[in-house]
Amino acid sequence: MSVQEEVDGTPLPPGWSAPAHQPGAFELPTTTFRERAERTMARPFARTAIAGATDHAAELTWLKFEGVDHDGLRDQAKQIRAHAIANLPDYLEQWIDNAEANGTIVHFAADEVEARRIIAEICVDEQIASVVKSKSMASEEVSLNSALEGAGVDVFETDLGEFVVQAMGDRPGHVIAPILHRTKDEVHALFSEMAGRELPNEAEALTAFARAGLRHAFLTADGGISGGNFLIAETGEVMLVTNEGNGRLTTAAPRVHIALVGIEKVIPRRRDLPVLLPLLTGHGTGQQITTYVTITGGPRRGAEPDGPERTHVVLLDAGRSALLGGEFEEALHCIRCGACQNVCPVYRQVGGHAYGWVYGGPIGAVLTPLFRGQEEGGEVAQATTLCGACDDICPVRIPLHDLLLGLRRQRAEQAQTPRREQLAFAAWGAVWSRPRLYRASTVVGGAALRVLARGDAVSTRLPGLRRWTDGRDLLLRRGRG
Ligand code: SF4
């Protein structure tokens, strides 16, 4: 049965209503990293849940690649991504030629304002009153939902986690797992409110409730909006992975499909997928492969029973082309697997919202200053211990920790670090670059710590560092001078 045939006789389930909340605003310009982090850390469950889920995901990733030449695969993936980005204009041109030959209508958005305008105009021209959306971080970047809702278009997020985020008026907390920071009880309360009755607090019942409503939305929406994991230059296709099948329905069921994809997602050939795909899914969810891999090549052709009548792809620049050929070009190699978030000791404590914009964890700490500018986003590049765990796990070997150091240096050169921090480091540099002063400082420091030590060889409450020492103990080795 084709999806068009299935539309008939699919009424909205009783009690189901569309999410009516606007997404939460980005907080980057109005709050500090510390304020945002403290808010997450004040929710003990969020902290435990984030650490537990990220531990689990990281463990699955390592297990997935046991017995496989993981490093060899990562080397190949790095090469593919580096080659694609180094030749981005050529591959983009090839992708556009092939996509247009397939019947895709291609648009180019220089920034987020243009992306919102173009997609809103497509909705008007195509007489789209409601859209289903599959998960797309690019659409988060441009705040697409609020633009569409402002234009009178009903928007249904169809990834279950994104649906919850949308209905809560929240934002995703992780690239792959948007509701990592939420509890089942919170979802139960939300869905019961939407249903107007108490639903069973069981995962199966809750997903069945969402599924029934979303099924109706898929079959009645005028438009489907997706992102894209890769743009395949040699075929003009868009590839996306999902586990819930919502990507396939979003791209195939409504009469118009619109994909919003960052220009850096281009790869040369289909045969690059056997390298990139297992790394994306293995590092994202620890799976051999996701349940659905969708490759879409334009609108329905000839006598095909399914597929959109028209396909639009909006290529999003929004700061990407400015990175080409520069010190931070490797940030464009990212395939958004989320693995660096899972192993980052900072992200695991504070979660994604602390980063204030779309992306959290090490890749968020790199992309936020690059896409939003040092003045607005530079602070989050400090949110790292520089332990290198992100470098070790990144499937395309992005030197995240070098990029973070580069961004910190850039921020210091632009004099955007706080005056107090500048003075402290100037003093520290002056003392520790002179051997006699360095030796004297260790003697003075050791003596000071012994004075401040409390209890059994433990020092707490260092003056000026209370925020640090209130939550940590500094072990002293007594009797060594
Ligand atoms: S930087 Fe690497 S590990 Fe992090 S999301 Fe991108 S590809 Fe994955």
Give the secondary structure arrangement, pairings included.
Layout: H1 3-7, H2 33-41, H3 44-64, H4 70-86, H5 88-101, E1 105-109, H6 112-125, E2 130-133, H7 137-141, H8 144-150, E3 154-157, H9 160-168, H10 184-195, H11 203-220, E4 223-226, E5 230-232, E6 237-242, H12 246-252, E7 256-262, E8 266-267, H13 273-285, E9 292-296, E10 310-316, H14 339-343, H15 347-350, H16 361-372, H17 374-377, H18 389-393, H19 400-413, H20 419-432, H21 435-452, E11 453-454, E12 458-459, H22 466-469, E13 474-475
Parallel strand pairs: 1-10, 2-3, 2-4, 4-7, 5-8, 7-10
Antiparallel strand pairs: 5-6, 6-9, 11-12, 12-13
The structure holds iron/sulfur cluster.
Iron/sulfur cluster binds next to helix 14.
Summarize the structure.
This protein has 481 residues and is α/β, with parallel strands linked by helices.
Helicity, in percent? 40-55%
Overall outline: globular
Number of structural units classed as domains: 2
Count of DSSP H/I helices: 22
CATH superfamily of the largest domain, called what? NagB/RpiA/CoA transferase-like
| Class per helix and strand makeup | alpha/beta
| Name of the top-level CATH class of the largest domain | Alpha Beta
Uncertain residue ranges: 1-9
Strand runs, count: 13
State the strand order across the main sheet: 1-10-7-4-2-3
List ligands, each type once. Answer: iron/sulfur cluster
